[in-house]
Design goal:
It is a single chain. The protein has eight helices and 18 strands. By secondary structure, it is of the alpha+beta class. It folds into three domains: 63 residues, Structural Genomics Hypothetical 15.5 Kd Protein In mrcA-pckA Intergenic Region, Chain A (Roll), CATH 3.10.290.10; 86 residues, Alpha-Beta Plaits (2-Layer Sandwich); 76 residues, 2-Layer Sandwich (Alpha-Beta Plaits). The strands form four sheets. Strands 1, 8, 9, 10, 11, 14, 15, 16, 17 and 18 form a ten-stranded mixed beta sheet that branches. A four-stranded antiparallel beta sheet has the order 4-3-6-7. The chain has a two-stranded antiparallel sheet with strand order 2-5. The longest helix is centred in the N-terminal third of the chain and has 9 residues. The structure holds uracil. Uracil (URA) binds next to helix 7.
Length: 279
């Protein structure tokens, strides 16, 4: 199912329980507008997990970001502030973030968004700019982006409430590939520039890993990276004298952007999520 983003405030204005037809597939909301309780049948059988993991499963943030949320004193357990992310909790511990109680694990969802330009890849922007999360109108689900694209970069961005999957996809150990198309200036890149991009470019945060690079046509390069440093493609191309004029991500791991128009999104199928998980 393809979904076109509504106006950017729509997600915030939607009232509880007014969700789209996803409820038929994903049990996101109870008819009375509350999150379905995915509780264990017998309280004593509920497994305890570390607080940060509990928050990640509840869709608050990735595990690492959840640790920061805890350390910042934003989490209470049974009404008392807890700053230790390793504290053991379960669904009956009364965990709340910023005063809002968590109902337990959310149904896990992964969304593919075709990010348009001018939208920031954070869940909340302190300057009030539109965010990628505003574009995905999926009530009852606290999504956050899997990594970042620059505000002016377009293309494939995943959002999820599955902290473990996000961490797996982003961890350098797993070397998930990302493919970009870059329109570059500075004339047509010659063989030396292309070789340098392929073999590694010296940047201020170290040499880049070997990358796949091909010239699609003069001035348009396709780069496939196995690492995800900040503004990496722009910095690599600038370092070889060909500054990026426009940048789009066309692929993330096994997933392609194809078929998604700018500003639209769709929920990935379980098979697609499994392929992502397998890398
Ligand atoms: N590399 C960049 O330079 N920018 C992006 O947004 C993504 C990769």
């Amino acid at each position: 199912m393809l979904c076109r983003s509504r106006d950017l405030g729509a997600r915030l204005r939607r009232s509880a329980g007014a969700g789209p037809a996803f409820g038929a597939i994903w049990p996101l909301r109870h008819p009375r507008g509350r999150l379905p309780r995915l509780a264990c049948a017998r309280p004593l059988a509920c497994p305890t997990v570390r607080l940060a993991k509990f928050l990640a499963h509840a869709g608050v943030a990735s595990r690492r970001a959840a640790e920061e949320v805890v350390r910042a004193g934003r989490v209470t357990v049974g009404g008392a502030v807890v700053t230790d992310p390793a504290r053991d909790v379960d669904e009956h511990s009364g965990v709340a973030v910023d005063g809002r109680a968590l109902a337990g694990p959310e149904h896990r969802v992964v969304v593919a968004l075709h990010k348009p330009p001018g939208v920031v890849s954070t869940a909340r922007d302190t300057h009030g700019r539109p965010t990628v999360v505003d574009l995905v109108d999926l009530p009852g689900t606290r999504l956050y982006p899997v990594g970042r694209l620059d505000a002016d970069t377009t293309g494939l961005l995943l959002l999820t409430n599955d902290g473990e999957l996000a961490e797996r996809l982003l961890h350098p150990r797993h070397q998930v590939t990302r493919t970009y198309r870059a329109h570059v200036g500075g004339g047509r890149p010659g063989p030396r520039s292309l070789r340098a991009l392929r073999e590694g470019v010296e940047l201020e945060d170290g040499r880049t890993a070997p990358a796949g690079v091909r010239e699609v046509r003069p001035g348009l390069l396709e780069l496939t990276l196995r690492e995800g440093r900040k503004r990496q493609v722009r910095r690599m191309c600038a370092a070889v004298g060909h500054p990026v004029q426009a940048l789009a991500r066309t692929r993330f791991g096994p997933l392609e952007l194809r078929g998604l128009a700018s500003g639209t999104w769709r929920v990935l199928s379980p098979a697609e999520v499994e392929r992502l998980r397998q890398g």
